[in-house]
Design a protein that fits this description.
By secondary structure, the chain is mostly helical. The protein has one domain.
Length: 377
Amino acid sequence: MRAVIVAIAVAFLVSLFCTPIAIKVFTRLKAGQPIRSDGPQMHMGKKGTPTMGGVVFIVATIIAYVAGHIALTTLPSQQIFQVGPTITALVLLGLLVFSGAVGFIDDFLKVRRRHSGGLNKRGKLLGQLLVGATFGIVALYFPSTMLDTQGSRTNTETVGSTALSFIREVSWLDVGKVGSVIVFVLVVLASTNGVNLTDGLDGLATGASTMVLGAYALIAFWQYRHWCADPSYVTKPDTYCYAVRDPLEIALIAGAAAGACVGFLWWNTSPARIFMGDTGALGLGGLIAGMAMSTRTVLLLPIIGGLFVIITMSVVIQIISFRTTGKRVFRMSPLQHHFELAGWSEVNIVVRFWIVAGIGVAMALGLFYSDFLAATS
């Protein structure tokens, strides 16, 4: 627990105090956010606000990960964990960094062209596919080599599973390694685009992502406390444990990312002095997808990220309705802009959408814990 707390604190402080520096640097570089001319007119006042702020909390998360591992070295030797970097960290931080890199290219092109159209859809999709496939393969083809204090191999799990999962793996939904990589690529696409579509109002995506990442930190730490690889916990044949890989590592990274988002939110909330841009939105989406895979809760993700699902579906509904009937269901999509055009204030929309995000997170955590209670009763 100490390592997770250290990571959260370091990420928060780095993000909080480095974001103003990023604001000055991006402002000096004239890296302002171009505003769509066909969007809500009240957004025109945000023109020139520096973007690409996601760079700050991505870097803060990596620094906090290192700090958390330094804290891990001070724990008693009988604790079950791998002190050095793990494949799990490679996958999760890789998804954060390289998904963010795809977004950075998009943001850079927007700034350079002084236009809201950055990387074309095909290029962005290709980048997301490559990132998802690369880390999906790493997650499925590299089993753990963790040893206990006697030198015996205690955990041969991979980061991902060949079976689809809800609270844990569903054995009869085994799709094989290739099928699992394909599923993960789809999850990455859904998650990155879901967060990106949500990032339309000051602080909206940042606050919602903080809740989701905080939920995964709790889930992963609970799995660590009830881990099948921990011989001190698995003492009876009927002990309820979680067959995952490196759950403390997952909790540390999720906590670090959540802390970094909170520090960034200080400057990103209305009126925002900096935007996360596609750099941050795609990075967070990639990390959230990795969290779902590594905690074996892929089918729980639509509930944890309920707000992202609702906003994404508003776009899908709008497109289908317009192309089939020529009519729009919403004044504008994504959904947050519909309420803007209906006369709601930006802060009002953000706070209420945060409540929706919180409800989804609470429902998911309730389902996760109720499964544990049902199994141990």
